[in-house]
Amino acid sequence: MRLVQRKSRARRVRADLHPDAEEGTHTDFAGDGAWDVPGLLRRLLAATQLARTVFPDTGPWLFLAVERRHRGVLDAEIAQFRNRERRFGNWISAQRDAAGKPLEISRPFEIRRLRKTTKVVRAVALGGTVSDLAGDDHHVEVYRMHYAHGTTAHILAGRSINRAQQWVFDRMSTSGRPVLVTAEAEQHLEEPRVAEDLGLEEGQAAAMRSGQLDMGLVNCRDPYDSPHRNDTKVCHVAPAMCMLCRNAVVFTSQIPRLVLLSEHIERMRASLAPPHWQAQWGRQAAALAEVFEECADLMPGARREITDLGLRLDLPLGLRTEFDR
Q1: What is the tens place of the pLDDT at every residue in 128-178?
Q2: Does a cis peptide bond (omega within 30 degrees of 0) precede residue 108?
Q3: In this predicted model, what pLDDT tens digit does every residue of 206-237 receive, in sequence order?
């Protein structure tokens, strides 16, 4: 069998020769997922299976649609996509938001705009050569003629935004990393050399060893020098923001508390909307994950301690009202 494919926009003709299989042999290519050619064909056949069952005399068309013919008789034939009610614009017009109002989408409705948007996102996110940007759904010539010239401005704008966002993220992540103190270092914390290596003063180290700077979850170098407020009053966001504070000092003996906080954050994931959870707890969850990864060997013991001692997480009422809703 000889299969010929003509791509008008790319001005290319592709011919594939498929020799007949030997008698008694069978070749079946299942594909790699739902979005490759075999996967799309399977989904298309599944979507039209009911029509093929109800109308068994229908021709062997791949694209099948049920239409109302003369005198209201239903029939299944090859889909011509000429009915306005089946067009992409009609489907968009029928969509509603959460309040039941029509979606505000600029006209004209054109599904090819979605394809071009995909190309722009791929170019901004991945970069690479023209063949990389063309991907597996276009020839290089098609991308050059129909996509490349329209994505340049979007790529430059996207890269500028990415650079600005990365600068903000770097500032947020580098300045808010707490210091993790091992159990051995905690025993010798009051020694000047150990305290200096951890960036602590001798008075701070002694106060932490005696529990005077315990903020409920972790220790704090100076509760009156909070980066979250401009005056010299005691920090008002502890312990909710301690994991994002440059003053935080974590003892390994405090790991069970942090495990309880992590479980509380995960419970909030189920009760808060995803954008709200990300804004309130996303960075804390990431900071906790870094600490847990750094002391992974202590995690089983910390969980056993929670169970054996029946530990509970006591959070201030202000934290629950401000961060948990």
Answers
A1: 555 555 555 555 666 666 566 555 555 556 666 777 766 656 555 544 568
A2: yes
A3: 888 888 888 888 888 888 888 777 777 888 77
Answer yes or no: do 246 and 319 share one domain.
yes
3-class secondary structure, 171: helix
**One domain for residues 118 and 102:** no
- Both 235 and 123 in one domain: the answer is no
Three-class SS string for the chain?
CEEEEEECCCCEEEEEECCCCCCCCCCCCCCCCCCCHHHHHHHHHHHCHHHHHHCCCCCCCCCEEEEECHHHCEEEEECCCCCHHHCHHHHHHCCECCCCCECCCCCCCCHHHHHHHHHHHHHHHHCCCHHHHHCCCCCHHHHHHHHHHHHHHHHHHHHHHHHHHHHHHHHHHHCCCCEEECHHHHHCCCCHHHHHHCCCCHHHHHHHHCCCCECCCCEECCCCCCCCCCCCCCCCCCCCCHHHCCCEEEEHHHHHHHHHHHHHHHHHHHHCCHHHHHHHHHHHHHHHHHHHHHCHHHHHHHHHHHHHHCCCCCCCHHHHHHHCC
Domain boundary among 58, 78, 109: 109
Does 116 lie in the same domain as 74? no
- C-alpha 198/C-alpha 316 separation (Å) is 29
Terminal-to-terminal C-alpha distance of the chain: 64
Does residue 258 sit in the same domain as residue 290?
yes
Which H helix or E strand runs over 170?
helix 149-174
